[in-house]
Structures are given as structure tokens and as C-alpha cells.
Amino acid sequence: MSIQNHENDLPVTEQPDSSVSENTPSIWAQEIDFDLCRELDLGVGAKGTLMTKLGIEISEIGPDYLVATMPIDNELYNPIGIVHGGAYVVLAETVASYAANFAVDINKYYCVGQEINANHLKASRTGTLKAVTKPVHLGGRSSVWEIKIYNSAGDLCCISRMTAAVVEKRSKSAGL
Fold it and tell me: Euclidean distance between the first and final Cα of the chain, in Å?
């Protein structure tokens, strides 16, 4: 079953796969919802994270994709007045990392970004960025995620790919 939040819908020229239906099997290893995402946004000790600092929010949960948004403001600009490429990468790694962790049993494993790349295709100055991630590969030791980032006008601004390492949790007595 897909959970959707249409309050933050932005016009985009390429939405997540429209052939996905309510009958599409979920890739998520557990039930996920927006409350869980907001809890994770707060981080260890509920002190906040980079996601809360930049206003990144998970805005849509589909059976095989996640969507996150990030408002554009001047703190994201590079010296020439457009969104800094690193801001796109932060948004891409955030949505892909959430997806990677939701795709594994979080009682036994956690995922961390191992490699990320990004191609910046169009500059952005105002509005909200929307990142859509889908898996390219889901394996026992790694997963690979494609992330497409759109501006408020629906233009594809950045395409990124992230590899996440799947790490087995150790007991606290084992040193982790």
C-alpha cells in the first residue's frame, strides 16, 4: 500500500512510475510512515540533524520509491546566486539513505552511504526541490539508488546515484 502526501506536490515533468499501483509489492522491510521519518529527522537525542537544519522532509512514500523536498533559500546558494551543487547532493543522499534503511530489517542492519555522484543539469534559484529515489539494486551487502531532483517548475536539475553499504548491527557488548 502506498502512502501519499499531496500537500507538498510540485509540478514535475517526470513523476514516479505511473504504472505503480496499490497492488505493486512493497520493497520496504517494515511499515514506514511520516511519523517515523520525522522521528529519524531529529536524530540521536532528538537534537536535530542536517535534515532539520535544511528543511528536508520525506513527502511521499510509495511501494518502491521515496520522495523528499527541500526549500530553496539564500543559505543554499553558491557565490554566484544559484543552489550550491553540494545542496543537491545532501538532498540526494538523504532520500536515498532513508530508502536504503527502510529496505532492510532495521532490527538487524543499518545502511550508510558508501559512494555518491551527481550530475548537475540545470540551475535553481527559488522554490522547492523535489527528489525522487528508486532502487537500481537491492543486495545483501549493498544497495544502489537513483535519485532525480526537480525544481518547482518541474525541470530535472540533478541526477544522482548513491551506493549504500548494508551493515550488520553488533551488540553493544561487541563494541558498537
Answer: 35
Distance CA 12, CA 156 (A): 8
93 is catalytic: yes
Residues 6 or more apart in contact with residue 94 via CB below 8 angstroms = 50, 51, 56, 68, 131
Q: What whole-number distance in Å separates Cα of residue 145 and Cα of residue 15?
A: 16
Please state the pTM of the whole predicted model: 0.84
Do 22 and 2 touch, CB atoms closer than 8 A?
Answer: yes
List the one residue out of 136, 90, 113, 106 whose CA is nearest residue 28: 106
Confidence of residue 4 (pLDDT cuts 50, 70, 90): very low
Selecting among 22, 39, 75, 93, the annotated active-site residue is 93
